[in-house]
Request: fold
Amino acid sequence: MWHKIKYAIYHKKNKKGKTIYKIFGIPFCMADLSDMLSFIKIQRSLVVNPNQAIVMIDGGICSQIHQWRIGEALMKKGVSVEYDISWFEECGKDINGVFVRNFDLLKAFPNLTFSKANNQKIRYFKKHFSYSETKGEIYLKAKCPRYFGGYYPSYYGHLLPFKFTIPFSVLDDKNLLTAKQIKKDPHPIGIHVRRGDMAVSRHNWTVCPVQYFVNAVNYFLKKYPDATFYFFSDEPNWIKKNIFPNLDKIKKQIYLIDDNGSDKGYMDLALLSYCHHFVASQGSMAHYANMLNHNTDKILIIPQKPGSSEITLLHNLKEVNPRPFV
Reply:
């Protein structure tokens, strides 16, 4: 193919001295020509390896873990997987365009198997091999080559166990001090209060009321009177204003972790995962912290039903809760 194309492409200068490129007699600008040649290279590689998939990664650190696990599940079936992280350059913010989202997966888990797809291959796969099905785990049966650009699925049972933890070595000095304090406490409780682009209820999540967090704290206080409570949120001032006034009697036992902005979400996840027990909100971070924690007596609290102030206890849950957005 290449020797034919080589002689089919030519250029000449027009009357104004501008270089005109043609392929098979059809004029092309250099950008079009470059893309076309890149696509031809990709096609040739697909002939050699048709069993290939590209998995898009976007969002915060928990979304990144989930999408990496999708690729891992595909690799387990013998598929050659590369990841598309172009979203972080093209967008890199939450739904409202306010809070920053960085690609932090390899910062948190430097030993993950990871291969990055190049931009030319990404464009070609998106155009020709995009996968649109979002139900269940049937994406595992999709024929390759394929581009996966979603959150398949909400059920996690088909994913391989995630055996990694976030090491102390990825933390900066300030977060390292907090981590050591958490590890030293006899009963540290990690509470995640999701705000930001999930501060308003929508069709697929419901905001947790303040009383829900108060009830969760009271449960652990009865079980562990010397418990310490570490609050994490993308809007820490909201916690100070709305939750802490209800916990004034135990103000010496509560801590607000506000050193990390949304651009360091993986450090919040690390600290949260070092706690012994967890309280989730309408986000998924506490669910992932619980998954990363390998204590056998851990408790994850979620609302009894969406929007409820009543709590439900999940004991020693090893996987992400099937309905993480409560």
Observations:
- Residues 1-10 have pLDDT under 50 and may be disordered.
- The first helix runs from residue 2 to 8.
- Residues 1-48 form one domain.
